[in-house]
């Protein structure tokens, strides 16, 4: 490769990269230090921190259901706490991942005529817990759908808490984590739809996605024409398409300058696996403060529509494993402001320029099934201007002006603002 193809890197990139490295390794050192402290001393310190927190910051409040959901270890225990049941189903994708699906039922209620099948899919770095980690059943969309006679299924992405299995590779292998949005769109979504339809004997289902769960459906429906014939409506909550970027200017600059900086910082396996360590160590109300601060810093979300008690039980189930590559894919989309397939950086490897090489876009204008977008007026991740130009004419939209991203699952008024709109849109 000649010098003409080597881009000059501004000094501020090196400074930003150095700062990021220092932050990552400082967290690692601190985590190891905490881990090496004897359990008795660590627990003594934890009790003192809790006492100081409640004395100076906020008084301790008790909420039986919130406390119960926060302490649940998985979706099975959450559903059981409300009297529902999560059935486990396993499917093998065409590229040999083993995915876990959850079918939500209510054993104590009389069998009613099913009104249709609904498949719900979660967002980035989460899992099916996200849908049911709600402290009031009337604000829990899957439970409300079940009560209204729908056959409800919750999907899980490859690599997350429930889908850490591959026929050949193990989670410790780098090859296991070599997947992006492309793979989820080409395999996870269509294979899951086929499995659900086979199990239920139905010809079509309704798809409800949240955040990246919408992006996976947009991508999958655009690439797989036959999939459109199996979906009677696609409801997109907080639709992720081409996010505008990060509210923190330094973070936004760094990832847009070079999305592959994530590989330098986190390697090529799972992204931020240490989150689970801090979840176990931190006192839950303090962990809530940390998450609130992080979301405010990155996305400028105020999170005022979500109660403190809902955050306690929701944030405890918010994180799950995903690949660094899938995050890099999103950063490429943000940088280029296009809903594109993963860029393998052939221009860097071969010396090609944009004149010779173009990353293909997902052909979303080819989607044939009905689409309903329900988006928030205060959601900084939404780029409705671009979405309107890229989607087919049958796509309809509803704006909830005071909503941010997570509000579509956990807001105080989700029972009034979101659930009725979903029920009205679903085929009866």
UniProtKB/TrEMBL annotation:
<dbReference type="GO" id="GO:0016020">
    <property type="term" value="C:membrane"/>
</dbReference>
<feature type="active site" description="Nucleophile">
    <location>
        <position position="211"/>
    </location>
</feature>
<keyword id="KW-1133">Transmembrane helix</keyword>
<dbReference type="GO" id="GO:0016042">
    <property type="term" value="P:lipid catabolic process"/>
</dbReference>
<feature type="active site" description="Charge relay system">
    <location>
        <position position="379"/>
    </location>
</feature>
<keyword id="KW-0442">Lipid degradation</keyword>
<feature type="transmembrane region" description="Helical">
    <location>
        <begin position="14"/>
        <end position="37"/>
    </location>
</feature>
<keyword id="KW-0472">Membrane</keyword>
<comment type="similarity">
    <text>Belongs to the AB hydrolase superfamily. Lipase family.</text>
</comment>
<keyword id="KW-0325">Glycoprotein</keyword>
<protein>
    <recommendedName>
        <fullName>Lipase</fullName>
    </recommendedName>
</protein>
<keyword id="KW-0812">Transmembrane</keyword>
<dbReference type="InterPro" id="IPR000073">
    <property type="entry name" value="AB_hydrolase_1"/>
</dbReference>
<dbReference type="GO" id="GO:0016788">
    <property type="term" value="F:hydrolase activity, acting on ester bonds"/>
</dbReference>
<keyword id="KW-0735">Signal-anchor</keyword>
<comment type="function">
    <text>Probable lipase.</text>
</comment>
<dbReference type="Pfam" id="PF00561">
    <property type="entry name" value="Abhydrolase_1"/>
</dbReference>
<feature type="active site" description="Charge relay system">
    <location>
        <position position="405"/>
    </location>
</feature>
<keyword id="KW-0443">Lipid metabolism</keyword>
<dbReference type="InterPro" id="IPR025483">
    <property type="entry name" value="Lipase_euk"/>
</dbReference>
<keyword id="KW-0732">Signal</keyword>
<dbReference type="InterPro" id="IPR029058">
    <property type="entry name" value="AB_hydrolase_fold"/>
</dbReference>
<feature type="domain" description="AB hydrolase-1">
    <location>
        <begin position="117"/>
        <end position="410"/>
    </location>
</feature>
<keyword id="KW-0378">Hydrolase</keyword>
């Amino acid at each position: 490769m000649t010098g003409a193809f080597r881009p000059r890197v501004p000094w501020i990139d090196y400074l930003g990269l150095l700062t990021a490295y220092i932050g990552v390794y400082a967290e690692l050192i601190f985590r190891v230090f905490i881990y090496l402290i004897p359990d008795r001393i660590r627990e003594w310190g934890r009790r003192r921190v809790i006492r100081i927190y409640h004395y100076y910051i906020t008084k301790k409040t008790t909420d039986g259901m919130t406390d119960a959901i926060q302490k649940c270890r998985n979706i099975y225990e959450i559903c059981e706490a409300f009297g529902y049941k999560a059935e486990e189903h396993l499917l093998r994708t065409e590229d040999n991942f083993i995915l876990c699906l959850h079918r939500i039922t209510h054993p104590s209620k009389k069998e009613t005529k099913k009104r249709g099948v609904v498949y719900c899919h979660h967002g980035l770095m989460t899992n099916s817990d996200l849908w049911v980690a709600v402290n009031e059943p009337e604000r829990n969309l899957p439970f409300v759908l079940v009560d209204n006679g729908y056959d409800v299924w919750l999907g899980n992405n490859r690599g997350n808490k429930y889908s850490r299995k591959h026929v050949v590779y193990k989670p410790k292998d780098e090859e296991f984590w070599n997947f992006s949005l492309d793979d989820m769109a080409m395999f996870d979504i269509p294979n899951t739809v086929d499995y659900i339809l086979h199990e239920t004997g139905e010809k079509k289902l309704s798809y409800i996605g949240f955040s990246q769960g919408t992006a996976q459906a947009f991508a999958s429906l655009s690439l797989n024409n036959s999939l459109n014939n199996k979906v009677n409506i696609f409801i997109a909550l907080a639709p992720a398409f081409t996010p505008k970027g990060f509210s923190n200017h330094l973070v936004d600059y760094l990832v847009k300058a070079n999305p592959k900086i994530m590989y330098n910082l986190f390697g090529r396996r799972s992204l931020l696996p240490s989150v689970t360590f801090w979840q176990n160590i931190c006192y839950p109300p303090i962990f809530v403060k940390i998450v609130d601060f992080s979301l405010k810093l990155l996305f400028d979300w105020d999170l005022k529509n979500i109660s403190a008690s809902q955050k306690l039980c929701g944030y405890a189930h918010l994180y799950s494993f995903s690949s660094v590559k899938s995050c890099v894919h999103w950063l490429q989309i943000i940088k280029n402001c296009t809903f594109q397939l993963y860029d393998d950086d052939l221009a860097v490897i071969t010396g090609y320029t944009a004149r010779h090489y173009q990353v293909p876009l997902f052909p979303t204008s080819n989607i044939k099934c009905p689409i309903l977008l329900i988006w928030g007026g205060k959601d900084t991740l939404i780029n409705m201007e671009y979405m309107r130009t890229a989607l087919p004419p049958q796509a309809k939209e509803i704006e909830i002006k005071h909503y941010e991203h997570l509000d579509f699952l956990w807001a105080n008024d989700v029972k009034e603002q979101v659930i009725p709109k979903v029920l009205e849109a679903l085929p009866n």
